[in-house]
């Protein structure tokens, strides 16, 4: 039902639907019971509508207990919604106005593998303490295009790909990736890094690292491209 002029989720949708695609509409509100009968949904796409945080009921998703993929990108949310299904494996809320991840918003989401929060207004203190550690199955975290001044702490051990391009990060301390031994890709282009602000020991223990993208957009590269390639070969 994408690319129409819908302002609300229609009533009477098939109760056994597994996929509902309502992107590129004019939906401004999701009430408590708008999704209550769609309990078999595994994929819901509400991206590029007109949703705002006050108009998204905190219990709107309570019946979606088998939902695996939720896309809320391209709306006007400033808070990560509470009450998201704990069954989620993929959550995308890119290109919104997110500036806060409220206490408990990620609690119990032990199946989430991919979290995309790029192009928002998140800062280092926007997420409650321990938020990322809640996500014990997370392999991909995309926080590019935000306002982070440092690499987030308490990243989950399961993390494999971390996207932090286009932030305000000015240093990579020695313990930045201490808790992420399985990481394969780190992306740090277009930040404020300089030759003296990256502690090389922060990468020494990352035996699974395949991609370190720290090039274009920083003030001075801490590693020459040839050195990075040699390290990857060894």
TrEMBL record:
Organism field: Perca flavescens
Name recorded for this polypeptide: Ras suppressor protein 1
Residue stretches spanning the membrane: none
A GO cellular component entry from the record: extracellular space
Family annotation (SUPFAM superfamilies): L domain-like
Repeat keyword on record: yes
Gene3D superfamilies attached to this UniProt entry: Ribonuclease Inhibitor
Native organism taxonomy: Eukaryota, Metazoa, Chordata, Craniata, Vertebrata
Keywords: Leucine-rich repeat, Repeat
Family matches, as InterPro entries: Leu-rich_rpt (IPR001611), Leu-rich_rpt_typical-subtyp (IPR003591), LRR_dom_sf (IPR032675), SLRP (IPR050333)
Taxonomy, superkingdom: Eukaryota
């Amino acid at each position: 039902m994408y690319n129409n002029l819908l302002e609300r989720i229609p009533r009477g949708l098939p109760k056994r639907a597994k996929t509902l695609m309502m992107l590129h509409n004019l939906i401004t509100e999701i009430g408590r019971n708008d999704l209550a009968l769609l309990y078999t949904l595994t994929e819901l796409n509400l991206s590029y509508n007109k949703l705002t945080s006050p108009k998204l009921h905190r219990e709107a998703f309570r019946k979606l207990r088998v939902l695996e993929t939720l896309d809320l990108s391209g709306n006007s949310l400033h808070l990560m919604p509470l009450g998201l299904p704990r069954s989620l494996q993929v959550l995308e809320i890119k290109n919104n106005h997110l500036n806060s991840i409220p206490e408990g918003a990620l609690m119990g989401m032990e199946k989430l593998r991919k979290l995309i929060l790029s192009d928002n207004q998140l800062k280092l203190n926007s997420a409650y303490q321990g938020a990322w550690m809640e996500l014990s199955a997370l392999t991909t975290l995309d926080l590019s295009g935000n306002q982070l001044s440092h690499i987030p702490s308490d990243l989950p051990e399961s993390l494999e790909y971390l996207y932090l391009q286009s932030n305000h990060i000015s240093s990579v301390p020695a313990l930045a990736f201490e808790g992420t031994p399985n990481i394969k890709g780190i992306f740090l282009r277009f930040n404020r890094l300089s030759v003296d602000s990256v502690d090389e020991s922060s990468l020494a223990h990352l035996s699974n690292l395949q991609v370190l993208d720290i090039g274009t957009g920083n003030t001075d590269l801490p590693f020459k491209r040839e050195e990075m390639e040699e390290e990857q070969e060894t």
